[in-house]
Amino acid sequence: MNKNAVRRVGKANYLARSNHSGIDDNNATFSALTMQQKVPTDLLALEPSTSQQAESMDYLDLPSAVVVDGNGVVTAPHLQPEKDERHATRKSTIFAMLSLEILMILLQHADFLTQQKLRKVCKYWRAVLNLSDLQESVWLDSQSLIGTHDFVAEVYRPRQLWSFTLPRTLSITYNGLFYQRKEMDGEASRVLRKFADRCPNLVTLDLRGLYLKECIDDWNVFFRGVPYSLTVSASQIVFGMLDVPEMRNGVAQEPMKPHRRCRRRTGSGPTVDLLHAVRQVELNPANSVFDALRNSVEASRLDAVREWVEDCATVLMKDQRWLGFVRAESLPSPAIHRISSEWGDFEVVTEPAEVSPQKVVNGQDYFTLLKFAAYILTRGDIALPRPTPFKFDFETDRFYRLMGGVSFHADFFRRLHRGKKVIKMASVFLQPVRHYSKKAAINHVLVIGGGLMGSGIAQITAAAGMKVTLVDQSQDVLKKAVSGIESSLGKVARKQFGEDKEKADKFVKTAVELIQTTTDAQQPAQFADLIIEAIVENLDTKKTLFTSLDKAASNHTIFTSNTSSLSITDIAAATKRQDRFGGLHFFSPVPMMKLVEVVRIEGTSDATFDALFDFAKKVGKVPVACKDTPGFIVNRLLVPYIMEAVRMLERGDASAEDIDTAMKLGAGYPMGPLELADFVGLDVCKMIIDGWHKNDKAQPLFFPSPMLNKLVGEGKLGRKSGSGFYDYKAQQAKQAKSGR
Ligand SMILES: CCCCCCC[C@H](O)CC(=O)SCCNC(=O)CCNC(=O)[C@H](O)C(C)(C)COP(=O)([O-])OP(=O)([O-])OC[C@H]1O[C@@H](n2cnc3c(N)ncnc32)[C@H](O)[C@@H]1OP(=O)([O-])[O-]
Ligand SMILES: NC(=O)c1ccc[n+]([C@@H]2O[C@H](COP(=O)([O-])OP(=O)(O)OC[C@H]3O[C@@H](n4cnc5c(N)ncnc54)[C@H](O)[C@@H]3O)[C@@H](O)[C@H]2O)c1
Question: Is position 342 annotated as part of the catalytic site?
Answer without folding.
Answer: no
